Amino acid sequence: MMAAEDASNSGWSITRAPDGSLVCTFSGPTRSDEFRKCLAALTASMPRSGARLIFDWRQVVGYNPETKEAIKTWLLEHKLSVDDVVAVVPQAKPILKMVVAAVSLAVGVRIKVREAPADAAQSAQFARP
């Protein structure tokens, strides 16, 4: 994968998978200000149409409810440019599945959820069913 934006000291990174998917990986606690920076970097990396997005939440610690509102707003603004959204969540964190479902309903974007063990291989493997 080629790095599009790396802010690993901030708990997130964005890479472009070989199939063109943009993979947003989060680790540790998700601070609101850093999450907004991630969304800004994602916006800068997005194609005008046909975007395939993977949000990898397997290494997140805790839950920051402010990120839910931020991603809802971002998806509403960009949903016409997005073809496919996948959220990769750890099997042990059902709260993340519920949040993804709530966001999906709120913005009218179908978000596929893929459960994976925390040590699963590359996130891009979850891009297609």
What's the gist of this structure?
The chain is α/β, with parallel strands linked by helices and 129 residues long. Helix content is 33%, strand content 33%. It starts with a strand and ends in a 13-residue tail after the last strand.
3D structure, described in words:
By secondary structure, this protein is of the alpha/beta class. It has helices spanning 32-45, 65-78, 94-107, and strands at residues 2-7, 12-16, 22-28, 51-60, 82-90, 111-116. The two termini are 20 Å apart. Helices cover 33% and strands 33% of the residues. α1 (32-45) runs parallel beside α2. The protein has three helices and six strands, in the order βββαβαβαβ. The chain has a single domain, classed as Transcription Regulator spoIIAA. The protein has a six-stranded mixed sheet, covered by helices on one side.
User: What is the CATH C level class, in words?
Assistant: Alpha Beta
CA-CA gap between termini: 20 Å
Helix content: 25-40%
Please identify the structural class as seen in this structure.
alpha/beta
Main sheet characteristics: 6 strands, mixed
Structural Rg: 13 Å
Average residue pLDDT: 82
Largest sheet: spatial strand order: 1-2-3-4-5-6
CATH architecture: 2-Layer Sandwich
Low-confidence stretches: 118-124
CATH fold-level name? Transcription Regulator spoIIAA
Strand portion: 25-35%
